[in-house]
Every structure is written in structure tokens, then in C-alpha cells.
Design a protein that fits this description.
51% of the residues are buried. The chain is globular and about 45 Å long. It has four helices and six strands, in the order E-H-E-H-H-H-E-E-E-E.
């Protein structure tokens, strides 16, 4: 769980659902060196050591999940992929383990939801996330057609990206770009659902 800090937090996008993550730092100010190494668990959301500096303009983004709109997100591949990424990316240490994956699953195929669950939090990473009060929020969410993959009436390949701000105890410590290439499939009932991650290149 901890898309995108703990497993869910610092994971498509980075989660096995993502491609790459790139920390962005405008370098407007530097925080003093920490007295001890941050204990961010390595997992779906925390594939690397958090940045030591964070721009002063970066503030924690909302980590409260919002319910998706009925029907509308499922009517097109970009719309459903955007809603899926918003839910997957939003993490809060006060929520149950892998709550973000549970919310995102309504926008996914069964196979994709199972694949993401395999890279979600476990008891140890979830406990660590709660101890550190880790949360994540995302904005600047985009979904664009992959120029390298064929598109059809029932299958779309989308490049998904978002800016994720990770925070601990309500203080932002890292801003990163998350990215993933996903297949999106039209179902027999006409709804579009996000499928498994696609290897880029």
C-alpha cells in the first residue's frame, strides 16, 4: 500500500505498477542534516532513500481519499486511469493497511488489483509507516496515450504520471514524480478498467 513512502506510500507507478520515480527538488532551502537516518521502509512506495532537502514551497497534499464519481470515470480510458492513479497514490498512516489499494481496485481489472496487492504493505512496513506517521498526496495527475503502443477500440496504452508529496507527521520531506505505463481495457459491459503495468521500451 504505502503507491507511492512505506510500501504504499513510497511505491506505478513505483509500486510494481509504475515505471520510474524521480525526486524533484527546486532547492529553495535546505533542512539541517538529520541526526539519524530516516526509517522509510523499502517497498512499493519507498524504493529509495528520501531526499534530505525539500523546497519550502512544497506542502503536504491532502491524503484524504475522495469517493469516485459514479459511472463517469469508467466511460473512457484516460478518465478511469486518472481516477485509479489518484486513489492508488493517496496514502495516510491513519487508514487501514493498503486502504489505497482497496479504493483503487474499483477502477481495475481483477488481475491488476492482485498484482498491485503483491507489492503493497505487509505487517512490518505498515507498522513502520504508522510509527513515522507517513502520508502521501498527489496532484498534477495526467494520462496520455503511449506513442509506442498500438491503440484500439477496446484497448488503450496510457502513460500515467503525477507529482507525489510525501510527508511524515504532517511535514513534507520529499516531492517526487511517479510514472507508469498501463494497459486499459474496455469490458463487455462498456466500462473501461485499468489493467496490469506494461514494460516501457
Amino acid at each position: 500500500m504505502r503507491a507511492a513512502l512505506s510500501v504504499p506510500l513510497l511505491l506505478i507507478l513505483g509500486c510494481a505498477a509504475c515505471g520510474t520515480t524521480t525526486t524533484s527538488d527546486t532547492g529553495q532551502s535546505e533542512l539541517p542534516p538529520p541526526t539519524e537516518t530516516a526509517r522509510i521502509p523499502v517497498g512499493s512506495v519507498a524504493p529509495r532513500t528520501p531526499a534530505q532537502t525539500v523546497p519550502t514551497t512544497v506542502v503536504p497534499l491532502s491524503s484524504a481519499g475522495k469517493p469516485g464519481k459514479d459511472g463517469a470515470p469508467f466511460m473512457g480510458p484516460a478518465a478511469v486511469a486518472t481516477e485509479w492513479l489518484r486513489e492508488w497514490c493517496t496514502l495516510d498512516w491513519r487508514e487501514p493497511m493498503n486502504a489505497n489499494l482497496d479504493r483503487a481496485a474499483r477502477y481495475q481489472t481483477t488481475a491488476a488489483a492482485k498484482a498491485d496487492r503483491r507489492t503493497g504493505d505487509n505487517d512490518d512496513t505498515y507498522r513502520s509507516a504508522r510509527e513515522q506517521q507517513l502520508s502521501s498526496g498527489c496532484d498534477e495527475v495526467t494520462a496520455t496515450a503511449s506513442p509506442e503502443a498500438p491503440q484500439s477500440a477496446d484497448v488503450a496504452y496510457l502513460v500515467l504520471s503525477a507529482r507525489r508529496v510525501n510527508s511524515a507527521a504532517g511535514k513534507a520531506f520529499e516531492s517526487e514524480q511517479i510514472r507508469s505505463v498501463r494497459r486499459v481495457l474496455r469490458q463487455p459491459d462498456g466500462r473501461w478498467l485499468v489493467d496490469t503495468q506494461v514494460e516501457a521500451g
